[in-house]
Structures are given as C-alpha cells and as structure tokens.
C-alpha cells in the first residue's frame, strides 16, 4: 500500500526503477510512523523485505525481467534483549498454576519451574527423557545436535526424580494419552 501510494496508482510494475525504490525506502512513509516519530530499524527492514519479496515474486512469474529491488539492503539489527520475568511475576505465575491441583497442572508447573530454574529452551525441555536425569544435572539436546549438561537447582532435581519415579526410559513430559508432549502442545496449553 505504501509503495502504491509512493509510485502512484497508475504505475506499472514493469517500469519501476531502482532509483524509485531507493527514493521510496528513504521516504517519510517508510522512515516515520504516523505520529512523526522514526520507525524502528526492524520496521523499515520489514518494509524493504516485503518490497524485495514482491519484486522477486514478479521475476519468478516472468511478469518482469529484472528485479529493481536488488538495490534495497536489509540493515543489520541487534536482536532485542530477552525479556525475563521479575521474581514477582514468576511467583504469581507459579501460584496460579499450583491452584488447579490436577496431574496436568502438576506437570505444567514442574515444566515451567524447569524452564525458569535452568534457562533451557522449550525444544530441549520437550526432548527430555527420563534417562537424561542424573540427580544434579540434566543432559539436554541443544541446537545443532549437541548434548549439554545443565545444573538443576537441588530441590527441583528432587522433584523431577519424584515425577518420573517408576519410569526408567522414555519421555519425561507425557500427554494425557501417554505420548511425548510437543512444543506446540506446551505453547497452546491454556
């Protein structure tokens, strides 16, 4: 929409030139928010990326011969600092989860406490097997097929071992049907 407004409603995509796209990328419509404040670099990058995607698509469909958007560069952006829960937020979350008292609530609360206590990724959490627990460490599968040892706070380690009591192998986190929980199931769980 911004590009159509910049080029004019009668512009033909086959006639768009690299200088026109550079002018568009530098225009206030791309660089400024409606309130006049500058847009974040992430936001301007998304606009540039969308324009590049559009023209790349038109080339692949043979609507145009050459891609004029190749002059648009995506600027490097530092990833945002991860937002962590405050101690109060952690406490409120765990308090709400403890209120249910069901087996699923116990499992979910323990999963959250493992995430909070170890800092592991969700993928590593759901990939945990009973045989990965050794009392004070947790052997996790990390990105890149690596296996890492992660220290587990003492009380949490005891709870984990109690949770899997009677099971020697297999997934730690099971659904009501007895199958390994997946990342999407954990994320979507109410």
Outline the structure in words.
α5 (87-98) packs antiparallel against α6 and α6 (103-118) packs antiparallel against α8. This protein has 9 helices and 2 strands; from the N terminus they run αααααααββαα. Helices cover 46% and strands 5% of the residues. It is mainly α. The mean pLDDT is 87.
For the report, how would you describe the main beta sheet? 2 strands, antiparallel
Distance between the amino and carboxyl termini: 37 Å
Mean pLDDT: 87
**Stretches with pLDDT under 50, minimum 5 residues:** none
- Write down the overall geometry: elongated
Task: Please give the count of helices.
Answer: 9
List the helices and strands and how they pair.
Layout: H1 2-7, H2 18-26, H3 28-31, H4 41-60, H5 87-98, H6 103-118, H7 122-126, E1 137-141, E2 147-151, H8 154-163, H9 183-188
Antiparallel strand pairs: 1-2
In summary, what is this structure?
By secondary structure, the chain is mostly helical.
